[in-house]
Write a structure and sequence with these properties.
The chain has 227 residues and is α/β, with parallel strands linked by helices. It has 9 helices and 6 strands, in the order ααβααβαβαααβαββ. Strands 3-2-4-1-5-6 form a 6-stranded mixed β-sheet, sandwiched between helices. Strand 5 and strand 6 form a beta hairpin. Helix 4 packs across helix 5 and helix 8 packs across helix 9. The longest helix is centred in the N-terminal third of the chain and has 16 residues. The radius of gyration is 17 Å and the shape is globular.
């Protein structure tokens, strides 16, 4: 598709998604949490915190594959981490024109462990667990949990469908804190690249937050308009 035609189509979709925003904002809050597409370091298993690494060509294809599913949803807000792998995923998924930068969506700051694989870290620090031990000269678990709680509190002041483009381990903490679980419980959650998860409230018990969908990727995404 020519670039001009693709840009025109994307612009049209963004306008359509944001039309009727007043009605959307009266709907219960529903968070569509997207992990960025593949990077060279996500492929190799290296911890990628604040290193601003780009998507691989495959990662860009993964991001584009999200667009048909996201096209079905009218979003009241779109928020993305400022790191290029997240906001490029947002762009390629068709929501870049509506996106706001949200620093609290950034990945865990790994400090001295930036760029290392877990096996390398455990070779010198046996039993190391990110969600229990954190990272020297980076963020501690309680700091990441506080960041997630701060973001959740702001989001809960609004309503409607909100798209969040973020990172693997921070997104796991965000999900754990959404359901009021301790940050350590995030060790039981995992996300593949360019995956979609949904955090919302139980329709039968609207005061109970739930994880309604976890780690779904094309072509196995359900119909999102049913959420």
């Amino acid at each position: 598709m020519p670039v001009a035609a693709e840009a025109s189509r994307t612009s049209h979709l963004e306008v359509r998604k944001l039309e009727g925003m007043a009605g959307l904002e009266r709907r219960p809050l529903c968070l569509y949490l997207v992990r960025h597409g593949e990077t060279a370091w996500s492929q190799s298993g290296q911890h990628t915190g604040r290193t601003d690494i780009a998507l691989t060509p495959h990662g860009e294809d993964e991001a584009r594959a999200l667009q048909p599913a996201l096209d079905a949803i009218a979003f009241s807000r779109v928020l993305t981490s400022p790191l290029i792998r997240a906001h490029r995923t947002c762009d390629l998924a068709g929501l870049g024109g509506a996106a706001e930068i949200e620093p609290d969506l950034m990945e865990w700051a790994y400090g001295d462990y930036e760029g290392l694989c877990s096996s390398e870290i455990r070779s010198s620090r046996a039993g190391w667990n990110l969600f229990k031990d954190g990272c020297p000269h980076g963020e501690a678990p309680e700091q990441v949990a506080a960041r997630a709680d701060r973001l959740i509190a702001r989001l809960r002041s609004g309503q409607g469908n909100v798209a969040l483009f973020s990172h693997g381990q921070f997104a796991c903490v965000l999900a754990a804190r959404w359901i009021a679980a301790p940050v350590l419980e995030a060790e039981h959650l995992a996300l593949t690249t360019a995956s979609l998860s949904i955090l919302r409230y139980n329709p039968a018990h609207p005061d109970i937050p739930v994880i309604a969908l976890w780690n779904a990727s094309p072509p196995f995404l359900p119909r999102l308009d049913r959420f």
